[in-house]
Amino acid sequence: MNVFVIGIGLIGGSMAKDIKRLYPSAKIYGIDTNDAHLEEALTLELIDAKSTYEELSKADMVIVSIPVDVMVKTMPRILEAIQDDAVVIDVGSTKSLICKTLENHPRRRNFLACHPISGTEFSGPSAAEEGLYIGKTNIICEVEKTAFKLQEKALEVFSKMGMRIRYMNPDAHDKHIAYVSHLSHISSFMLGKTVIEKEKNERDIFDMAGSGFGSTVRLAKSSPAMWTPIFKQNKENVVETLEEYIQNLKAFKQLLLDDDYQGIFKEMDNTNKIKEILNGIPQNKLEQ
To answer: Are 188 and 219 in contact (CB under 8 A)?
Structure first.
């Protein structure tokens, strides 16, 4: 099996690692605009060879793990370069625009729109982790538009990686992911910004920061090059979630101004019920 990974970072590199382990005879080709990433991926043995878009005709499977704005522009070119029996999988965090862009493409049947909900705050080939996807949910959109045999090919790989599959339409995906992922990243970035601006002495930040602060701002270390296009593509849903979040912050501030500590206790006590929801979610998923 010839597998081409376009974008050798955390997500694409982790998939490459798992495929090499699960399919020892597979040959992994890497395509990336950053040649240093390709060299690093070769050194780390994530890929077997560097490649180009012109060689995509050799592919049995193509995994596209690049910023979502670049993906929208590049995916038609990728589909035009492959053979009829190849499946092209994207792993972007937004789904509506890519699905709409490709809805009338002659090779739409070769495309599988996916979002493996997994990752860390790190990026680049060295961030790749074997087994990253074990127990993680992979959202697949518009599966009925992908040729059945190509679905099977991709689903076999996902199953061996240990992923759980859920099917969802692109608009619902983008709406829900704005709450559970995109808002979390914005909150983390803005908390980090607030503390940096307030605490001019960086030593004070590091000396006083506990595990709670560290876990809350962990996502602020994520790549702006990846996340800015995500926020742009999902702007409408992100703005809606931000408006709700800001209203809750304003309401909490007002309780403080009113010295309503019983109200504060009640707000926090009611929110504690989220433990009942999260207790049913595997810990490795919460650590994404």
So the answer is: yes
CA distance linking residue 288 with residue 280, whole number of Å: 16
Could you tell me the two tokens for 211?
Answer: 């595990």
Query: DSSP assignment of 192-210, as one string?
Result: HHHHHHH---HHHHHHH--
Tens of pLDDT along 145-174? 999 999 999 999 999 999 999 999 999 999
CA nearest neighbour of 138 among 15, 47, 8: 15
pTM, full prediction: 0.86
Report yes or no: 186 and 159 within 8 Å, Cβ to Cβ.
Answer: no
- The whole-angstrom separation of Cα 191 and Cα 259 is 24
- CB proximity list for 182: less than 8 A, separation 6 or greater: 93, 230, 231, 234, 237, 238, 241
Q: Per-residue pLDDT tens for 243-274?
A: 999 999 999 999 999 999 999 999 999 998 87
